[in-house]
Amino acid sequence: MTLLKIDHLKKSFNKKTILEDVNLEINKGDVIAVIGPSGSGKTTFLKNINLLEHPDSGTLSIEDKKLDLSHVSTQDELWLRRHIAMVFQNYALFKNKTAFENITTGLIYGKHLDKKEAAKIAEEELKQVNMLDKKDFYPSQLSGGQQQRIGIARATALKPSVILFDEPTSALDPELVGTVVDDIDQLAKNGQTMIVVTHLISFAKRIANKVIFFEDGEILSAGTPEEIIDNPKNDRIKKFLEAVSRDK
Amino acid sequence: MNVNFMIESMPKLLSVLPVTIFLSVIGVIFGLILAIPISIVREKRIPVLAQIFDVYISLFRGIPIIVQIYIVYYGLPRLLFLLNQNNPGAKGFTMPSMIIGIVAFALNASANLSEAFRSAYHGVDKSQYDAAISVGLTKSTTFKKVVIPQLIPNFIPNFTNILLDLIKDTALVYNIGIVEIMGQANILASFSFNYLEAYLDALVIYLVVCFIFASLLSLLENKIKQHVFA
Ligand SMILES: Nc1ncnc2c1ncn2[C@@H]1O[C@H](COP(=O)(O)OP(=O)(O)OP(=O)(O)O)[C@@H](O)[C@H]1O
Ligand SMILES: [Mg+2]
């Protein structure tokens, strides 16, 4: 069943085209891994999906609503963000809020739940990521891995249809990557639909049922992990995978 | 050195300390009131107004404050007279020096404060804004709950500097007839030619006052930081 459909997404900055006619169809429960060279437009792609940046053109369909991305009303924007959450590369936890408040902020001021309800959800989510004992800690008092788990809890608490992950592990010390990867894997197993931009090819293979390779703002190739990662047909992808594995 | 004179003059100087404090504190408060809309206009780059404020700020930051004081002193009454010309009863305007002083200080402070706002605002990582928007907050809630609370502790150190500068700059307003610490020191000294002694008294007062304000504001900064960032 199609959950999210993006058609002819275009974005440019100062006349420089960054996204060139991107199309993507996502089914419920899909885990899409996005790989590709630095600067190919992966972050821009995610930010244009939840309208942190505004596309020049394109359409987005989700939950039987179709949005013309070239002009979305503020109301539709807010509506869209109740369905699409995001996890950031640098965690981007609210520095002025505790772990607990990081989770409740969106629930109270975004989804307009009452405080009690929000608190209940936040505690559940904190338990999920094993961080309940840190609920009153501020981001500056948490390790990168702990911050990212809060970042994930903040997104899942919103019960979004889709979660966008922008290189969720790339700012982490190597020994902290594991727990965050496990949390995301667990989410995937629970049937959460997500798009995950990552440089970790093994991670992509582990969680994704579909991999897309981005280059120069276009989807150069899309397919199963076996097709794209294990048996890449395209020379560009082969080269990229070689380079990435050499870095390790 | 006439120590006796120093001791005797001290209370007389302290008696005008409220003028110094009033002028700088009221100046900085009106400066803040002006700086907030100026900062918003410049940050949003609202056409025409933003450019005007850019010029305004570089003017005020580029001209010695004594010149600003004189311009307001001679210019403001003239300007009000011109604006009021249609009014049949209009006469020449005379204005209390204190008002002139406050206007000059408020204008000067507003330019510096809006620069301080700007750097405090840019000190808040853009991803904080993105994250708040991404969890469904409106722009205004994002500012209220995330951006502004983080901007304030960034702002206080610069605010402190601006306030201390204003306090020190009040030493110039005796030029337009306001008797504050410096004016009083001049008056007291001129009777007996004990200039050094009078200025040493003034020095002590400025030092103590600036120290107290700086300490209070840094206390406030720490309190807020504790509250905001733990
Ligand atoms: N706000 C912006 N203004 C102008 N150019 C931008 C902006 N954001 C991104 N770009 C440009 O868009 C291109 C794609 O950037 P993007 O961050 O999406 O790449 P990426 O694939 O996420 O790279 P990385 O793997 O390094 O994170 C880059 O050339 C970048 O310079
Ligand atoms: Mg990126």
What does this structure look like?
The complex is a heterodimer of chains A (248) and B (230). Chain A is α/β, with parallel strands linked by helices and 248 residues long. Helix content of chain A is 39%, strand content 26%. Chain A is built from nine helices and ten strands. Chain A has helices spanning 42-49, 74-81, 99-110, 115-128, 144-156, 174-189, 201-207, 225-230, 235-247, and strands at 2-13, 16-27, 31-35, 57-62, 65-68, 84-87, 162-166, 193-197, 210-215, 218-223. In chain A, the strands form two sheets. A six-stranded mixed β-sheet of chain A has the order 6-7-8-3-9-10, with helices on both faces. In chain A, helix 3 (99-110) packs parallel to helix 5 (144-156). The mean pLDDT of chain A is 94. By secondary structure, chain B is mainly alpha-helical. Chain B has one domain: Orthogonal Bundle (MetI-like fold), CATH 1.10.3720.10. Chain B is 81% helix and 0% strand. Chain B is built from nine helices and no strands. In chain B, helix 5 (97-122) packs across helix 7. Chain B is flat and about 70 Å long. Chain B starts with a helix and ends with a helix. The model of chain B has no long low-confidence stretch (mean pLDDT 93). Bound molecules: adenosine-5'-triphosphate and magnesium ion (MG).
Brief summary:
The complex is a heterodimer of chains A (248) and B (230). Chain A is an alpha/beta fold and 248 residues long.
Shape of chain B: flat
Just give the CATH class of the domain at 11-92 and 162-247 in chain A.
Alpha Beta
Number of beta-strand segments of chain A:
10
What is the CA-based Rg of chain B, rounded?
Answer: 21 Å
- Given the C-alpha coordinates, what overall shape of chain A results? globular
Annotated CATH architecture of the domain at 11-92 and 162-247 in chain A: 3-Layer(aba) Sandwich
Approximate strand percentage of chain B: under 5%
Proportion of strand residues of chain A: 25-35%
Q: What structural category arises from helix and sheet content of chain A?
A: alpha/beta
Mean pLDDT of chain B: 93
Fold-level CATH name of chain B = MetI-like fold
How many H/I helices of chain A? 9
